[in-house]
Amino acid sequence: MPSLSPQPSTPPAPPAPAPPGGPGTGLRRSLGVVDGVAIAASSTAATTSIAIGMGTIATIVGLQAPALLLLAFLPVLGIATAYARLNRSEPNCGNGYTWVGKTLGPWPGFLTGWVTVVGSVVFCAYTSAVMGSVVLIFANKAGLHSLAGFALDPSSTGVSTAVGLVLLLGLTAIAVTGTRATTRFQFALLVFEYAVLLGFCGWALVTGDQSFSLSWFNPFEITNGTAFAQGMVLAVFFFWGWDAAFSVTEETRKPDDAARGGLIALFAMLGLFLFASVAFQREMSLAALIRNGPQALPYLGQKLAAEPWATLPVVALMFSAAASVQSTLIPTARGLLAMGRDRTMGPLWTRVHPRYGTPAAGTVVVLAIGSAIALLAVAIPRLSDMLLAAVNAIGLLVALYYGLTALACAVRFRASGREGLRTALLAVGVPATSGLMLLGLGGYLGYSYLTMSDHFELSPANGWFMFSLPAAIVLAGLGMAAVAKYVRRSPYFATGHGTDAESIVLPMDRTPA
Fold it and tell me: Average pLDDT, stretch 340-367?
């Protein structure tokens, strides 16, 4: 029987430590280097870029795709070093939005965040059409060419978009349930699609009947300045996505893991792109590349193998498109979370799911906006034309926000020259050169578009139309910045400092470790 005499009081237990993600974020630090590589590689979407990009870039620069991909890698690598250094000094899921705002000022900082987000949403919109097109290719292979009176045409923007939006809904549901589950799903997709890509491109490299030429690696073969600028912007777009690893820096065990993941993915993509571009040109003539456009990879499969093996590249393309859309949803929702924390965007974006620890509400809204943009793109009937217009717009936006972020790195660490020549070169010289190169390319290409046409029409051959898409996005961003400053009275516009992960109380993550 327990004693009834008074017992010595037991000191209260110390409070449980806060989750590793920091109090208030609701974002659990559970990711490592491999997860960062999976997110960056999936977002870069090598298979999708190769499948739809080789034909697109061939229409602009002919057979010089290998030269431009190698040349574009240099400024992109400079941008990557800027991201890594900035991330070490200030880990934040808002990355460029936070870093540029603190260093160059809140207006360019907000614009960096805005064009990053909008470019990603546009990417989700047009890639959903790619997914739909691939599903329709499967349907055609199975003998199904029409349904309820509608032709199941893979080259139709409208039909491809309708099918793709259904798939986009399912991918959003997976992204909402947690980043860890998403990266595991993406890693499985990556293993399959890279195995197929390397297998078919390797076979094309060996058996192709088009003579290999070192001139493919000579950028001076491109004599038209506008074609060179547009080709470079498209080549930069090929690499776009490696920075997605930095969007989960607050969910990564160590900030350096995000940088390692992004850089590993970036070098892997360079190897894949060069390998595939040479393989495509060994197997297909320039006319065949241009003619097949976004169906170049399925065409390669049909040319090299009989069924059912010829279908494998189509499956790989579908997996790549699915993984890239899903991995794009992750940084987009987290970038908006960072902006919502500063009240530059509405409070909706700061809602973190109490069970999954993800910005679920923001992810769903991104889905809705992406779907609306995809439906607007139906106004361009041919899928290849819609893709070219979308890729061009995103390429210019990517050049803008990469350039601003690189300049922010150079300005922030401008005093590092006292630490030695190597530090000054990596922290200031390389980022500044890379940023100015991309901003210069974007500006030159924009000017070329303005002067190449004398009227407006919905066509990727019309300069005014090609300029109007990124210009409208930038102007809308300046309007939203004004709303944030004068209506929401965001503190970001007083200081330029982005809110860090510890500064706002949000629901805690209840997902088991």
Answer: 78
